[in-house]
Amino acid sequence: MRCRLASRAVVSVAVAALLAAAAGGASSPMAGAAQAAAPCERLLALELPDTTITAAERVPAGSFTPPGGAAPVDVPAFCRTTGRTAPAIHFEVWLPQAGWNGKFQGIGNGGMAGSLYYDRLAAALARGYAAGATDTGHVTENTFDATWAFGRPDLVADFGHRALHLTTVNAKAITEAYYGAPPAYSYYVGCSKGGQQGLMEAQRYPDDYDGLIAGNPAHDWTRFYAGAHLWYAQATLADPESYLPADKLPLLADAVNAACDALDGIEDGVLDDPRQCRFDPAELTCAAGRDDVTCLTPGQVDAVRDIWSGSRNRRGELLYPGLVPGGEAAPGGWARWVTGDAPFTSLHWLAAEGFFRHMVFEDPDWDFRSFDYDEDLAFALEKVGHDLDAADPDLRPLRDRGGKLIVYHGWSDADISPLGTIDYYEDVVALIGAGRDRATALASTRDFFRLFMAPGMGHCRGGPGPDRFDALTALERWVEQGEAPARIVASRVTDGAVDRTRPLCPYPEVARWSGSGSTDEAANFACVPPSGTR
């Protein structure tokens, strides 16, 4: 803590010096704010610890083409600042030239990072935010490329937690230097790897943000890569007879829906709580000597069971929960993550291969079939777990400073098990409510941390259920007005038009239809306590 405070003191001194220069002798920082907001180029003179401002340029309103071949984005006029923090953390801070809402937004990454989401910077800018993002200390065009980590524990630490934290501190200093005042509120938004980053910030750096949104979080990173990415790859690839081709996914998805869709009282192609589904894929077993799209071979049945059951060690202990039934045939679902276009093309395989070859074992010839879930997982946790895993349930420092946290997860996520996120939430409830009854513990946790499960939503987006919602506005109201989100309305868009809305409810509440009106309209649903679930 002393080191962090000292670093911020240095930043504050540097910002104060630049503000004084920008104000030209104005009597107070706010008196010089209008002058400081105009000359973007002055930010080149800003001195920050171990950091160099590499560019500060005005970008006119209109279409902006980011570097590196990223797609053009529509932007208002803004000051684009780029920088580098040692050893190799590249970041950008975008500052609206007019209409700043007085706030800062940090933006997360995906996969193994290595690039910036310029479309999300532009979206934040359009809402009036000053916004910052980082590549986390390396550059790559491949989402799951981990070659940069070979022999570089410093870069692994930057990727795991250091880069976003330092970028946040520096970006807020740049924002203050530009406008002459610090952000009144700071928010973080991220999904997947970005969800891991959000929970890492909440756990290790609770002073960075007033509110955070962590979607579909890969928070328990090392166990997730071993117990999900690698486990699912082994289930479908270790034995050639177990590979499940994408053209069999509609068979599986239809059978799941036939068995379980009506359990929530509505037949709509979405399982509201897949934990209640008891479908056995053995019901789809092919007759002897047969293998076509109307059935699953015995090896394919075992693969589906392994994926749903989760990974276990030799003692039978659950290491990481499996995926849940529902949404298997949705675009971007199992066909992308589990099966790929052919064997050894799925994202689970690509992610596991890169992580273990280059970051854990540092052996380009490592064979995924050799992984020992007792010894090798322990080795991985010892080597990289401290830098990558955001699984600490002690969020009391965030709570005590008044911070708020929204986590969401799609039930039909084919990448990260939604059960892992629920388990983490329950761990937080247990710690926050230690020694108290369940209702009191849950209420105390929901005072600052709320989890929203999204039925039918895939990995951050997609799936058969509603997948578009505005969690940021809900977070702003919670932080700034004390209005805790009792529900967040999500929409499903088909062919450019909204055809279904549903409320997302704070866990463990679930959305229940009133019994009248359209089941495609959120107004006809209420958030109620669950029946038959914890």
Classification by helices and strands: alpha/beta
* Oligomerization state: single chain
> How much is the radius of gyration in Å?
24 Å
Overall pLDDT metric:
93
DSSP helix fraction: 25-40%
Instruction: Quickly count the helices.
Output: 15
Major sheet details: 9 strands, mixed
**Low-confidence sequence ranges:** 1-7, 19-36
Architecture overview:
This protein is an alpha/beta fold and 534 residues long. Helices cover 35% and strands 18% of the residues. The longest helix is centred in the N-terminal third of the chain and has 27 residues, at 153-179. It is globular, with a radius of gyration of 24 Å.
Short précis:
35% of the residues lie in helices and 18% in strands. The protein has 534 residues and is α/β, with parallel strands linked by helices. Helix 6 (221-237) packs antiparallel against helix 8 and helix 6 packs across helix 11.
Which characteristics define this entry?
534 residues; 9-stranded mixed sheet; globular; disordered N terminus
Task: List the SSEs and their pairings.
Elements: H1 2-23, H2 33-36, E1 51-59, E2 62-64, E3 73-75, E4 78-85, E5 89-96, E6 103-107, H3 118-126, E7 130-134, H4 153-179, E8 185-191, H5 193-204, E9 211-215, H6 221-237, H7 249-260, H8 298-309, E10 311-312, E11 318-320, H9 334-339, H10 347-360, H11 375-388, H12 396-400, E12 404-410, H13 418-432, H14 438-446, E13 449-454, H15 471-481, E14 488-494, E15 497-504, E16 510-513, E17 525-528
Parallel strand pairs: 6-7, 6-8, 8-9, 9-12, 12-13
Antiparallel strand pairs: 1-4, 2-3, 4-5, 5-7, 10-11, 14-15, 16-17
Helix pairs in contact: 1-4, 4-5, 6-8, 6-10, 6-11, 13-14
